[in-house]
Amino acid sequence: MRSNGIPTPNIRRLLGYSFDPSLSVQLDTALVNEAVFKVRWEKELEKGPVGDYLEVVDFDPASECFYKPVDLNDSYILAQDGLMPSESNPQFHQQMVYAVAMTTIQNFEKALGRRALWSSYRDNEEKEFLQRLRIYPHALRQANAYYSPTKKALLFGYFPASSGTPGEHIPNGLVFTCLSHDIIAHETTHALLDGMHRRFIENSHRDTLAFHEAFADIVALFQHFSFPEVLRQQIAKTRGDLASQSLLGQLAQQFGRAIGQYGALRDAIGELDEKENKWKPRQPDPNDYQTVVEPHERGAILVAAVFEAFLSIYKCRVADLLRIASNGTGILTPGELHPDLVDRLAEEAAKSAQQVLNMCIRALDYCPPVDITFGDYLRAIITADTDLYAEDELGYRIAFIEAFRRRGIYPRDIRTLSEESLSWPSIPEEDQQVIFKFIASRLRLFIHHLSYLNQFPELEQLGVQNVWMQKRLIPGVDKRWNGMDDTEKSKLWNHLFAHQQFAAPFNFVAYPSGRDWISLSEQEQANARVVVWNTMSDREKIFNLTSIARSALHGWLGDFKADAGAGDVQKFEKLTGLYLFGNTERNEKLKGLKGELKDGQWRYKLEVHSFRGAQRVARDGTPVNRVIVSITQKRIVPLEPGVDVSAEEEDADGLKPGTFVFRGGCTLVFDLSSMQLKYVVKKFIDDSDGRLKRQRAFRTSEGGASLRATYFGAQSENEPFALLHSDV
Amino acid sequence: MSAKSNPSIKIRMYRQGLGDCFLVTLKKNGSNNFNLLIDCGLLQGTKNGKEIMLQLAGDIEATLKKEQPGDQKPWLDVVVLTHEHADHISGFNQAKDVFANIEFREVWAAWMDDEGHPKYKLVRERFHKQVAGLKASLARMDGEQTGLKEAVAFLINDFFDEDVLGAAGEKPKRSSAWEFALSKSTQPPRFFTPGTTFTLPGFEDIRVYVLGPSEDFESFTKVNPPEDDTYRSDGHAFALMDSFFAAVGGDGDEDFSPELFQPFEEPLRIKPNEAEQDDFFIKHYGFGPSAADSWRQINNDWLSVAGGLALNLDSYTNNTCLAFAIELVSSKKVLLFPGDAQFSNWLSWQKVTYDIPDDKGVKQKVTAKDLLERTVFYKVGHHGSHNATLKKNGLEMMTSPDLVAMIPVDREQAKSKTSKTNPKGWEMPEKNLYNRLLEKARGRVVLADETGVTELATRCKDQNFVGKVKLGGTLVRNPGAAPEPMYVELTIEG
Fold first, then answer.
1. A 620-659: CB under 8 A from B
2. What 3-state DSSP class applies to A20?
3. pLDDT score of A715
C-alpha cells in the first residue's frame, strides 16, 4: 500500500506471443505476433511468478537443472512491459505461461461472475484449500503438455522439431510447448474445468474426454479474438471473411508444424487437402458424431460446431456494415478494405467472440455432474442463455442449434430440435416442494457471505453451528494465530474491535499481547478468529464456506429424509433421480449402491458434490441470482451384467476386480428471488434410461480396449491427459 | 490340367505355450510333400522353455524323417521368419542342436530384414536407438513407478532376447536365433515386398501372395486404427524422442550429445545441489519425500513417456511382420498367415493389387479384399490380442462360410502376466474379438492350449469339423509332468 496518493494499478502489462514463436519469423505475421497481455495486478506477486492463483516453478528434471524464477516486480522489467519475447530466455518462458494462464482464468471468472477455484481432490478425497495451480514450463522432453489432476500442476514439454518437415524451424531446433498461447490456454482450461466438474475426467462415455478437449480448445480459440492487433490484421487479410483460412481458427501452430504436419494441430474450421496441399473449409457431416471416436477428433466436431455458431453470429452482426460499405449490395469491391471498416468489423468480431465464449462457459453451470455428452452440453448452452435472456433477440441460440444439428449432435432424449425442447424443462409450480424453499433460503445466507467476504460468517446465524464446521471455516486457526506477527495482530485487533461496534460474541477485550492460542479465553478466541479470517485470501474463504454449505446441505437432506412423509420423499426422488431410502426391492434394483441403517431405515449414501452461486444481470437490468448444487450417488457394478462379485476383495478405492463405478446424480438450479427450484439436470442412477448398459458396452469396448490396456492395465487413468496429448 | 488331383494343405499348430510355430504341409499325389515352417518361438521367460522347444524341434525332425525318402538329411522346403520377436523365433536358438540336423532349403523374411534394401540402415538404427533409450530409462525409474517399470520391462524382456537388447555398454545386434535361421538357408534367403506373388516349385496350383509389411515403414508406429488419422505424423515420432534419449543417457551414441538438446545456455542452469540451498526452490518445490508438498514434485514424470515408447516398439516390431496368404488356385481357397501384424500393416494391404493370369493367360486383378473374402483359414494374429485383427478391413471381410481359425495362445500364461497396475494379466484372446471370431467361423476356432476336442465340440456344432481336428505327438512340459499332445492339426482340402 502506497501513501503518496497514487492508486494501485489495475493491470500489469506483460509481453508475450499472441500465437507462438514460429509466427515471429514470418514476415506477414511478425508484427502482430507480439501482444501485450493485460493481467490483473496482483498485489503480492512474488518472483516465480507466484501469485494468488498460480505458482511457476521452473524445474527441468531431464536436463537436471532449475532455472531462476523471474521477478516481474523488478523495476526494469516493470518499465518495459515485462521481458521481451525470446525463446532462449527461460525467465521469459515463465512470464509467458503466467500471462496466458492468468488471462484464461480472468476470462473464466468474467463469464461465471465468481472466483475460480482449483480442484482439491486427491485420492478421491477432498483436501484442504489448494490455493495455487503449479506450472512447470520445462517438465518433459516430449511433444506433449498436460494437466495432471493428481499433482494439480501443468506440465509442459519441449522437443526437437522433426527433421523431415521442419516448417519454419531449424531442423532439430527445440520447440517449447510453454511458448504457445493455445497450449497454455488449453491446459489451464483443463485445470479450471476440473476445478468445477471433477467427474468430467472420468472416461465413462465417448464424449467425456472429448468434451474436456473440446472445451479447452474453445477457450483457447476464442481468446485469440481478444488481441486487437491480430484481429485487425486477420480481418484485413481475409477481407472480413473469417470463415476462410485465418490464423484465428487454428490451434497450436508451431506444435502442429514441428511434429511434421503442415498447418495447425486442430483446425477448427478446415483442413489441409493432402493431395492438393491446399486448405479447404471442412464440410460438416451429419454422420461425424456417430462415427468419429478418437477424443481429439471427436472434440474437433464440437469445436467446429461452436465456431460455426460464432461465424453465423458474426455474419449477422456485420451484414449491415457490409451493405453500408458496398452501396447497399453487400458485395465488397475487390482490393483492400477501408481501415475504418476493418476496425468496425474487428470490433464486431471481438464482441461476438466474447459473447460466444461467455455462453460456452456459463453453460457449465447447467451441465449434469457426471457423464456429460455433447447433447447435454448443447442443452446446457441453450438453457443457460434462456435463463438469463428470455428472448433470443439476436438469434444466438438458433445459431448454436443449427451448427450442432449440421454435425449430427442430438441429445438422446428429445424429439425435436427446437429451443423449447432443448432447454432443460423448468420445474412447474405444482412440483415445487417445501424442501426446495428451505434449501434455497438457507443457501441464500451462504451466498450473501460469499459476496461480502470481509464480514466474518457467524455459523450460528447460518444455522450450521458445529465443531467440525467451526474448524472447517478456518482450518488450523491456532497455528495461524501463533504464526502471525504480534504487531500486525494487534493492529488488526484494535482496528476491528476498538469501536465496540460489535454485539456479542465480539465484545471488546484488550488485545492479548504475545499470547498463544491455547492460552486465550473463549472470548479472546472468538475475536482472534475474526482477526485470522481477515488475513485469509478471498478464494480460501470461498472454498471453506463452500465446503461448509455442502456439508450443511447433506445434513438437511438427512433431516428431510427422517421427517418427510412418504409422498414427499417419493416426489423428491422422482424429480431429482436420487434414491434416499432403501427397501428389498430397491436394493435389488440398485445393486452396488452403498447405504447404512439409521433410525430403523436403510439410507443410501449420497454426496453433495458442489455448491456455487451465480449472480448475473439480464439485458433489461433485472438481477438473475442462482444457486447451483449438484448431488451424486455411485454404484459399484460388475462390468458384465449378472456377474456375482460379492466374494471378491475390494481394493483401496472400494473397487473389486471386474467392476467399475457407475455414477448418477443431478444438478439443481435454484432461483434465489422466488426461492424455487428452477431446473433439474439429472443422470439416473437406477438406469431407467439404459445408461448403465451403454456405459458397460463402452467400457468393455473402445473405452477399455487398447494395447496399452492389455499390457499396462488401468494405470493410465492416473494421468488421463498425459496420454491424450502425447504423440507416442 | 484336369488330370491333376487337387492338393491339400495340412496345418499343424504346436502347443509350446505363448508363441507361434506352424508346420504347413502341402500334399499332392505323385509329389513329395512340401513343408513350410512358419515361425518357431516361445515367450521369453517361459518355465522350462528350452526343453519344450527341444522336444518341439525333435517332433519336427521326426515328422520330416518319416515322410521324406531314404537317408537324406531331413529338410524344410521353406522356413518363414515373420518378425524378430522371441515368441516367434526363440526356438531357432533354444533348439539349435536339433535344427542343425535339418536343412532349411529357403528362408523367407520381409524386405526390411534385407541388408541390401535402401531403408534397411535407417530401420535398424531407429530400432536400436529405441531399445537403447528404453533400457536406459528403465534404469532411471524409481520406486514410485514400479507399475510402469514392470510393464515396460515386460515389453522389452519378454519379446527380445539378450542379443537384441545388447549387454551393458554394447551395441544391440540381431538376435542369434534370427542369425542362425537366416544363415542356414541353402538357397539365398528371399526378402519380400508387398505385391509379390508366385507359385511354388512343383506346386503350380498353389500360389503365395505377399501382403505386408508396406515399404512405408514410417506408418508402423501407429498402434490403433483410425483410418483417416490426419494430424498424427508418426514417421517423426522417433525423431521427436531424440531429446528424451539424450537425457536418459542413450548408450554413448554420438547422436545423443546431451549438450545438443539442452534447452538453455549453461550459465542459465542452476544445478540441483545449488537449488537445494535456494529459498525459493525450498519453499515452492521442496526436496525429498518429506517436503510438505512432495506429492507435487515431478522428478520422474518425464520418464513416463517410456511406456508409450515401449508400446511403440512392440507395435512397430509387430508391424514389420511378413504377412502373406496361400491360395489353392483351383478351388480359390485362401489361407491367411498375418504373423502378428497390427492395424497399419493390415491397412496397407488394401493398397496392394496383384495381376494374375487366368486360364486363358489374360491378366486379372486380385486385391487383398478378394483374398480376405476367400479366406477359409485364418491364423489369428498376436495370440488374439484386440489390435492384431483388423475389423472392417479384416475379419469382417472374411465372408466365406467355410472359415476356420487357429489361435496360438496359452490363456493361463497370458493371464499370469500380471503387474501391479494390470492385475488381470494380458487378455489373450480378447473377448470381443474372440466372440466375433466364433460367430464368423461358426465355432470352428481351435485354441492351442486345449488338450483335447471336448471344449471345441461344445462351441462348435459342426461335428464333421471337430472330427477332423487331430491332436498328436508328446510334450512333457515340466520334468515329471503328465505327457500331453505336442500339436493340434487340421487339413484343408483343395
1. 657
2. coil
3. 42
CB contact B353 to A (< 8 Å):
no
Indicate the length of chain B as a whole number: 494
- What mean pLDDT comes out for the span A314-323? 87
Strands A11-17 and A121-122: unpaired
CB spacing of A728 vs B237 below 8 angstroms: yes
B313 within 8 A of B134, measured Cβ to Cβ: yes
Task: Report chain B residues whose CB lies below 8 A from the CB of A294.
Answer: 226, 229
Q: Which of A639, A712, A721 to mutate to test the interface with B (most CBs of B within 10 A)?
A: A712
DSSP labels for A274-287?
TTTTEEEEPPP-TT
B157 at A interface, C-beta within 8 A: no
- List chain B pLDDT tens, one digit each, 494 residues: 344 567 899 999 999 999 999 999 999 888 889 999 999 999 988 899 999 999 999 999 999 999 888 788 999 999 999 998 889 999 999 999 999 999 999 999 998 888 888 878 777 777 777 777 787 788 777 766 677 777 777 777 777 766 776 655 566 678 889 999 999 999 999 999 999 999 988 888 899 999 988 887 665 544 333 332 222 233 344 556 777 877 776 545 555 566 777 889 889 999 999 999 999 999 999 888 888 888 899 888 888 878 777 777 777 777 788 999 999 998 999 999 999 888 778 888 988 999 998 878 888 999 999 999 999 999 999 998 877 888 878 898 999 999 999 999 999 998 888 766 667 778 889 888 898 899 999 999 999 999 999 999 999 989 999 999 999 999 999 999 999 999 999 999 88
Distance CA B172, CA B166 (A): 4
A707, A717, A726: which to substitute to probe chain B, counting the most B Cβ within 10 Å?
A707
Kindly determine whether residue A57 and residue B426, on different chains, have CB atoms separated by under 8 Å.
no
Minimal C-alpha gap between A52 and chain B (Å): 14
pTM above 0.95, yes or no: no
Its ipTM equals 0.86
Beta partners for residue A266, in sequence order = A251
Nearest to A63 among B262, B299, B431 (CB): B262
For residues A69 and A47, the answer to whether their CB atoms sit within 8 Å is yes
Mean pLDDT of chain B: 84
Please give the pLDDT value at position B314.
76
Within 10 angstroms of residue A71's Cβ, the number of other Cβ atoms is 16
Residues from chain A that touch B260, judged by Cβ atoms under 8 A, are 172
Can you say whether the dihedral through the CA atoms of A635, A636, A639, A640 is positive or negative? Answer: negative
CA-based torsion, A204, A210, A211, A212: positive or negative = positive
Q: How far apart are CA A403 and CA A411, in angstroms?
A: 14
| CA A433-A436-A437 angle, 5° bins | 95
| CB pairs < 8 Å spanning A and B | 221
B427 touches chain A (CB under 8 A): yes
CB contact under 8 A, B148 and A715: yes
Interface check A172 vs B, CB under 8 A: yes
Distance from CA of B241 to the nearest CA of A (A): 6
C-alpha distances out from residue B155 to A708, B423, B428, Å: 11, 16, 15
Q: How many helices (H) and strands (E) does chain B have?
A: 19, 20
C-beta of residue A459 within 8 angstroms of C-beta of residue A469: yes
Specify burial of residue B117 (Cβ count, 10 A radius: 0-12, 13-18, 19+): middle
Q: What is the CA radius of gyration of chain B?
A: 25
Q: Is the dihedral of CA A441, A445, A448, A450 positive or negative?
A: negative
Residue written as cell 435463463? A387
User: A660 at the B interface (CB within 8 A)?
Assistant: no
**From the CA of B99, how many Å to the nearest CA of chain A?**
33
Contact A169, A257 (CB under 8 A): yes
